[in-house]
Amino acid sequence: MRNRVACFWVALAGIGFPAAIALAGPLGLPPVPVPAGNPMTSEKITLGSTLFNDKRFSATGEVSCATCHDPAKAFTDSPLKTSEGINKLTGTRNAPTVVNAAFNATQFWDGRSADLEDQSQHPFVNPVEMGLKDHEPILKIVRGDPTYAEMFRKAFGIEPAAITMDHVKKAIATFERTIVSGDSPFDKWYFGGDKAAMSEAAVRGFKVFLGDGRCVSCHVIEQDQALFTDNRFHNIGVGINRIQDRVPEIAPKFLEAKAQGMDVDVKVLTDPASSELGRFAVTEGLDELGAFKTPTLRNVAVTAPFMHDGSLATLRDVVLHYNNGGVTNKGDRVNDFLSGGIRPLNLEDQQISDLVAFMEALTSPQHARPAQAASTRAMGAGTSAVQAAPACSTPSSASGTIAAQQLAAAGDTP
Amino acid sequence: MSNNYSRRSFLRTAGSVAAVSALPVTMIELAFAKPAENFTFAYISDAHIQHIRGTKFVNNWDRGLIRAVAETNLMMPRPDFVMFGGDLAQLGTRAELDHGAEMLARLNGKLYCVMGEHDYYDDLGEYWSKLFGPQHYSFDHKGVHFVVLNSILTFDDWTHNRWPTPQQRMLEMAGLDNPNGSPFMVGDKQREWLRKDLEKVEKDTPVVVFSHSPLQKIYKGWNFWTDDAEQVQALLAPFDKVNVIYGHVHQIQYNQIGNISFNSVMATAWPWPYPQSYAQAEQFMPKLTIPMNRADPFFERDATGWQMVDVNTGRVGLAYNLYNNKSRTVAFDPKVGHPVDKELQSVALEPNRTHY
User: Fold this and answer.
1) How far apart are CA A337 and CA B69, in angstroms?
2) Which residue, A127, A386, B278, B355, is most buried by CB atoms nearer than 10 A?
3) Residue A16: pLDDT band by 50, 70, 90 thresholds?
4) Given pLDDT bands bounded at 50, 70 and 90, which one contains residue A113?
5) Cβ-nearest to A343 among B59, B76, B324
6) What's the pTM?
7) Domain parsing of chain B, residue ranges
């Protein structure tokens, strides 16, 4: 994939950035991969942002992408367990953050979309999300709205009649590639060499993260950047534990329906039992039964509740689940299909607290909640570096991210 | 990843929507096969259930067997029976054999067991036989003659006169490159039983032999070896189609000697490396072996697995379910007259992106 993509920061330089700003990506992140067929332009980013926030693309006119991916909540719908679509209908999965989704090798918790472009089209037509019957209403709106006509003309050089979903998907994906964030206290401490950026508890927690906690094997840290994911799928005993005795009945039934043309996207979001089959629903591979994608840990402290089904309320609960070897309540039966890396950890209470402190140090300044940012400062983090950025709510600056702010600036100086 | 185990590939091969209620099995349908003669069985092996103390057992080995059993129970069409290929226990104790037997009891359908040296050398198979029955036997199924041998016996003197305790004997036999060890063998008595058993079998009846150790000589220091292999092979030589399936080696091997096809099965416990990487002494690796990725110590199931065996006009094909590795299928190819890896044999290997 890497050989097909351009460096985002270089791409930004190409659209009129002062090079010095353009090349300074957030601390702790690699270059954003950009597909050759969908280069970054400020016009497409602005268009994508507008589409992302347009509630007219739902059956009730009340739900946009931003409803479940709210910039004020680090692009999630925290504290909801599972997302609420039209008419307060709930799906089966906890909204994953859009922040840094640009780096994901696959999209959705089960990786059923290969990229942001493909992913962006599905929620529109899922009955428990935006509820459209098909994509036609979207095209009708964007072709008929003079503002959109102008924006599509600028972004793609096309007339309204020529707009297709391909353009819509590309614009949304382009916008989402600007929603990246690093610069967390951890980044400043680990990559920036600022010894005061993390609390002592967080520093101890990092040792647990690398050692006894066995976290880093899946939540990967590289030498010069950290995305905290291996982009793989693991059965960690969440969700699947609820249906384990019924797997011999549920799995064949699912495959049968899939073979007869059932829509996987709809099925996994509307049927709780099928949802827990995880990656198996996509690949039908036995070793991915009940397996879900390793999510990034960046900004995890502001996106509770946790796991693909939102079943764990606090980060401490998450650590306890792993500490128990893949069961939420100690002593419960471990599911037969558990991934090989999951086993009881025997962490001590202090290690568990420290690990939570470490995860709380992964919040980027623009996503920090005021209270948390204040406490970060109180812990003695670099006061000049860590600031609580108020969450933005207007569509034009919806991302509230450094990259988008830079691009907004870029748009002013073409 | 288990792409080979996908229902899609099943459908493509079988070409029938009648199979849609099936969970994934890769079927190796040969062009001349009469479907009525084809059947599958599952093969789980080398679980090495290991007792720590009290009610504690090694979690890693437990999980491997539990998972293989659960996955076997998902297979559709149902395998006709399940083989367990030996080394259920690590040190042959009652606690280990009981714990393992309890997990195997969750299998749906008929179970046949093979004796492994880790099951045997504590009480010389006494408790194992109470749980699982005779140590060598034969049965017929859908026109195929199946033989189960206890191939891990050795010299009487070593077994009965050398060691102060049964536990010591077990530990000595469990050691690798152990100068105190002793080579495996089927032995005179059992070979005589085999000769008589095969007397009543027509020469064109397909024969499948299950043993724990390879009935061929690969590497003596690890007992990838059966000392009287040639004599056993001589008894099998008159038959048109003979297949030997063995455990013990914890890796995929396949070979052809005369009319006998050899296939090994994976362990659910841990992988052994390939002889190239450890051999400092003479070794005879089957020439058709293709190495697989090394194990990732974090993902404990890496490079372990189990297999579905497809018996097709008397020849076997093994579909290996390999965690964190691409699944593989090794099946007899009548055109070349020996087992081939369906995919790896013919394509240049690409590096696996999850290992480096």
Assistant:
1) 10
2) A386
3) very low
4) very high
5) B59
6) 0.85
7) 29-330
Is the backbone peptide bond immediately before A71 cis, with ω within 30 degrees of 0? no
Tokens of B87: 């080394």
CB A343 within 8 A of CB B59: yes
The alpha-carbon gap from B56 to the nearest alpha carbon of chain A, in Å, equals: 13
Q: Where are the alpha helices (DSSP H) in chain B?
A: 7-14, 59-72, 94-104, 117-120, 126-132, 156-161, 166-174, 188-199, 229-236, 275-278
Q: Look at B299 and A340 and tell me if their CB atoms are within 8 Å.
A: yes
Contact A255 B69 (CB under 8 A): no
Of residues A19 and A164, more confidently modeled: A164
Residues of B in contact with A217 (CB under 8 A): 298-299
CB pairs under 8 A between A and B: 89
- Which CATH fold would you assign to the domain B29-330? Purple Acid Phosphatase; chain A, domain 2 (3.60.21)
The residue count for chain A: 414
Q: Best residue in B266, B298, B306, B322 to probe A by mutation, most A CBs within 10 Å? A: B298
Query: What value does the mean pLDDT take over residues A177-197?
Result: 97
d(CA A124, CA A281): 21
Which ipTM was obtained for this model? 0.85
Q: Does the domain spanning A2-180+394-412 belong to CATH 1.10.760.10?
A: yes
Mutate to test the interface with A, among B71, B107, B108, B327 (most CBs of A within 10 A): B71
The closest alpha carbon to B50, from B21, B14, B13, B89, belongs to B89
